């Protein structure tokens, strides 16, 4: 099995995880598993850009690729499920990332939900406007979902742009946005677009035309989409039409359903023991939810769970420790428990 770029991504994850998580934590990360552990690991090891960027990766394929990496002497097991990169693997990873860098605009954690819906909306809009401008009403819509069609009808009624202006404005905004995309060829998107007398290519056809692997194309495509979403979020006034396409796509990160329920009870003033009893869950599960909340809500105050003095001690230990292993940090700050350490690392420690 070739899949050299996917192997590069796996090696990159192994390097960042430092042997502290199993190989299957990479599967959960790339699949976008919405568990507290996966979410916390993505932040702790600074792997959020890769979250849910290979949603269809299977356990069998990961096992096979891992075995190939071991056979190539680029990766070595420390036990049955934990791996580290060899010195040869470190060199190979550096070479591979120079040849096929992970797109700098990739941000699976922030945009995994919004990206798909945005693409459905913009591709249907371009197709419809192209046919309207050429007075053609006989064509098969490339998007079949009813909610996307209903959104487009609403958009055309309420956008504030005349129908004959939409195409011009959208083209101008897209060109302006994609000009600032330094490490991705805009053709990863434009070759896919369908319009009057033009049928867009599939993802496989586009990757072959551009001469890049399917896996690398997939990340480049997502990187381009995420670049547009980030640009609009940062400066909506510069992209007024695209901003309307983005609106309601779910840009903001969502808590898992269970964490949302815990957060609702926290806001009502209930403590963790009461919440655990109320929800018939273990206290450790509620603590997982609190860590998830801290990761997602910048305004969430953790001082009621960890004193400011302890926070400073934990951060100092994390900065001086050889790794991000919670056990090692706790040995350096024995008066803190694992929940307190995880909470501080979630709130303050990413990038430390």
Features:
mainly alpha, Arc Repressor Mutant, subunit A, 352 residues, YpbB-like, Helicase_HTH, 2 strands, 3 domains
Question: Helical element count?
Answer: 18
Taking all Cα atoms into account, the compactness measure Rg is 23 Å
The strand count comes to 2
Q: What pattern of helices and strands is seen along the backbone? A: HHHHEEHHHHHHHHHHHHHH
How confident is the prediction overall: mean pLDDT?
A: 93
How many distinct domains?
3
Question: What strand line-up does the widest sheet have?
Answer: 1-2
C-alpha end-to-end distance: 37 Å
The proportion of residues forming helix, as a percent range, comes to: 55-70%
* Rough outline: globular
* Low-confidence runs of at least 5 consecutive residues: none
Taken as a percent bin, the fraction of beta residues is under 5%
Structural class: mainly alpha
| Biggest sheet character | 2 strands, antiparallel
Pfam family, one: HTH_40
Domain Helicase Helix-turn-helix: 258-345
InterPro entries: Helicase_HTH, YpbB-like
């Amino acid at each position: 099995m070739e899949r050299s770029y996917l192997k590069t991504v796996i090696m990159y994850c192994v390097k960042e995880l430092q042997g502290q998580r199993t190989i299957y934590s990479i599967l959960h990360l790339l699949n976008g598993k919405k568990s507290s552990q996966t979410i916390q690991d993505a932040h702790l090891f600074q792997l959020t850009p890769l979250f849910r960027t290979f949603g269809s990766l299977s356990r069998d394929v990961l096992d096979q690729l891992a075995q190939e990496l071991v056979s190539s002497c680029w990766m070595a097991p420390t036990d049955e499920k934990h791996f580290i990169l060899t010195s040869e693997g470190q060199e190979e990873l550096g070479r591979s990332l120079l040849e096929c860098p992970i797109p700098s605009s990739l941000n699976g954690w922030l945009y995994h939900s919004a990206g798909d819906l945005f693409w459905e909306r913009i591709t249907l809009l371009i197709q419809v406007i192209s046919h309207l401008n050429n007075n053609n009403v006989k064509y098969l819509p490339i998007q079949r979902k009813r909610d996307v069609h209903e959104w487009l009808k609403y958009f055309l009624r309420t956008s504030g742009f005349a129908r004959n202006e939409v195409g011009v404005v959208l083209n101008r905004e897209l060109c302006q946005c994609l000009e600032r995309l330094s490490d991705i060829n805009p053709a990863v998107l434009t070759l896919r677009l369908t319009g009057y007398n033009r049928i867009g290519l599939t993802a496989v056809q586009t990757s072959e035309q551009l001469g890049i692997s399917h896996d690398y194309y997939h990340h480049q495509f997502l990187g381009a989409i995420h670049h547009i979403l980030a640009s609009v979020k940062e400066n909506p006034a510069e992209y007024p039409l695209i901003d309307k396409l983005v609106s309601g796509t779910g840009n903001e990160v969502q808590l898992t359903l269970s964490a949302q329920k815990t957060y609702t009870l926290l806001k009502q003033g209930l403590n963790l023991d009461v919440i655990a009893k109320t929800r018939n869950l273990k206290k450790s599960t509620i603590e997982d939810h609190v860590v998830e909340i801290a990761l997602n809500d910048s305004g969430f105050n953790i001082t009621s769970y960890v004193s400011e003095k302890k926070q400073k001690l934990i951060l100092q230990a994390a900065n001086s420790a050889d790794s991000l292993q919670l056990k090692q940090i706790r040995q350096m700050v024995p008066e803190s428990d694992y929940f307190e350490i995880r909470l501080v690392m979630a709130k303050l420690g990413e990038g430390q």
